[in-house]
Amino acid sequence: MKVKFPHILWVLFFLAIACKEEKQKGEEIPLETFRGEVAATPVRVAKAERKSFDYLINASGKVEASEQVMVVIERAGYLLELNAKEGDFVEKGKVLAKLDDTEAKLKLEKAKIALKNAQSTYQSDLLSFETILNSGDQQRITQIEEQLKAKSGLFTAEIDVKEAEMDLEKTIIKAPISGRIADLKIKRGSLVKSGDELMEIISSNRLELKVKVLESDISLISLGQKAEIYPVGSAEQLTGSVQSINPKVDENGLVQVGILLTSSSKLLPGMNARAIIRAPQNNSLVVPKQALVYRSQRAVVFTIDKNESKWNYVEVGKDNGQEVEILSGIEDGATVITTNNLQLAHQAPVQIVTE
After folding, report:
1. Which of 177, 230, 232, 261 has the greatest number of CB atoms lying within 10 Å of its CB?
2. Listed GO cellular component terms (predicted)?
3. Which domains are present in the chain?
4. CA atoms of 59 and 128, how far apart (whole Å)
């Protein structure tokens, strides 16, 4: 025979169970208990310091010779001599080539003969003005001499001689500057004309790196400012100084800056190189770059307060690759976390390690 509980007993049984569950839900575990159970995150720290901060301006460009001259032939003729080849170093004034000068010499001889004839005519005409020449009136004497020189053709003859001498000088081609020869374009024996390019002379003693700098950074650059130069494909560091600043911004918002290299023995014009120009910033609040993290695209620096991490939104200034300038968000002297901060939460327990 089955025993049935009265309905009232079933109701009391369920009420007791419900009260027990409500009691368990109503008991809250203190937050400190959870924190005690979470292991402290080991972190390294640094101090936010107000100091001089080197902002690094990076720019790339090509090496150019500060002196680079194209040697151009100035008269027509046959190139009889060529005394240089590509790669040769030549001093300023050295004879590089000679043209056939037969015609130029003949022209000069004819000009000299014409000059002698004009001088003879002039001297003969002077005899007719002997009285004026002996008068002592210098102004009148000068006037008569100039008139007779023009009439006899002496002025024209003197100019013709100078032109012939200049034309003869053009048959000898000399180096306008000291440097190395590049791009030799004409061979010996060739028939050339006025305006033909013979070769290029590049002064490798003074090389300049032309780089493009953002217009926002140009106010931080001045003449004489030091720069570090890194040729492409080489780990060697060279030095230089800012030589020129173009006073014009191009369509891309860039300004051309010329950096004169202190040492250029291993560089050639046309090589690519990277420059780092140091622009010191005084009295800047600076933290190591490792202290800066980004959350939801906002800059954050964690500091330490009573062995817990503190989340600080910051406004970032300039960055030199090792340190970051902080414009606002933390105070000078604050202890900032530099490691294990990528996934760190606000008010998480931390432990400073020094090793």
Report:
1. 261
2. efflux pump complex
3. 41-53+283-352 (2.40.420.20), 57-66+204-282 (2.40.30.170), 73-200 (2.40.50.100)
4. 79
